[in-house]
Amino acid sequence: MTPPPTYTALGSVCSYCRPTGPAVTAVITAYIDEGKSNVALLNWQDLASMALPGFASSYMKWAAPNARKLGVRFANTLSNMAAAGLNLKKIHLIGHSLGAHLFGITGTTLASRGMQPSCITGLDPSRVGFDNKPNHLRLNPESAESVVVVHTDSSKYGAKGSMGKVDFWPNFRNNGHVIQPGCDERPAQTFSMADLCNHNRCWELLIDSMKHPGTLLGSHAKNYRVWKNYSAEEKKSVTMTIGKCDPNAVPGNYYLTTNAETPFGRGEEGL
Predict the structure, then answer these.
(1) How far apart are CA 31 and CA 75, in angstroms?
(2) Beta carbons of 160 and 125 less than 8 angstroms apart
(3) What average pLDDT does the chain have?
């Protein structure tokens, strides 16, 4: 018999998604199909749902505080599992939106106890309520040995600033709100698929990085303006692909452009 996979991914995919919704199902299916992971889902739908009248009130007074509390509680759970033999060096936590901060707090709490997960992938971490919080209350570069963040909706639902050891900025621009190729610039009903198109592109890119390895290639630069002024050769000098967890990667910001639909990756043409 083939031995079971030893690499474990535990995913809180997003705060507003159903456990059986398209985002959760797609990400989990991609990892299962890859055949390298034991996958577990942290289902916190009830703690992240609209429990109070109005989205803003429910988010700030219910979902965000619950994410912080659950982040610590989940760290306690992993601590107990580690004491029973779980190897935290084989743990990869994947969180989308508010879930990214939940796992960031989990990792930071574990780090304060002298233990860390191997990798956290933050998929477009939430902006509201977290942009100016101290590190221990949000996803931060020290939450895991490798913290990789993919920003696809910065300044709207996603965070404006870097939060990882490696931060990818697909299709970033300085002049206004980032619009991912294939997403509509026109205003849409809040939390409709059209409204969430940019915010959801991050998990679509993660899945694509597994189906088409090496195609979502980002170029390292101090900031977007520096990257735009790089020559073609300078853009190729330090690169990294979305989907990788490399504790030895050159830290900082990575920029790339993508296609409007899958396969999103353009390889070196996207630099």
Answers:
(1) 23
(2) no
(3) 89
Given a contact cutoff of 8 angstroms between Cβ atoms, the answer to whether 11 and 94 are in contact is: yes
pLDDT tens digit sequence for 156-195: 999 999 999 999 999 999 888 899 999 998 888 887 889 9
**37-41 and 7-12: which strand pairing?**
parallel
Pull the structure tokens for residue 77. Answer: 């759970």
Sorted by where each starts, the structural domains of the chain and their CATH numbers stand as 7-270 (3.40.50.1820)
3 state SS of 148: strand
Q: What is the pLDDT of residues 125-155, one digit of tens each?
A: 999 888 888 999 999 999 999 999 999 999 7
Q: What is the pairing mode between strands 217-221 and 239-241? A: antiparallel
- Cα dihedral sign for 49, 53, 58, 61? negative
End-to-end Cα separation, the chain, in angstroms = 44
Closest CA to 79 of 29, 113, 30: 113
Instruction: Decide if pLDDT at 4 tops 50.
Output: no
pTM over 0.85: yes
Query: Which of the 8 DSSP states describes residue 154?
Result: B
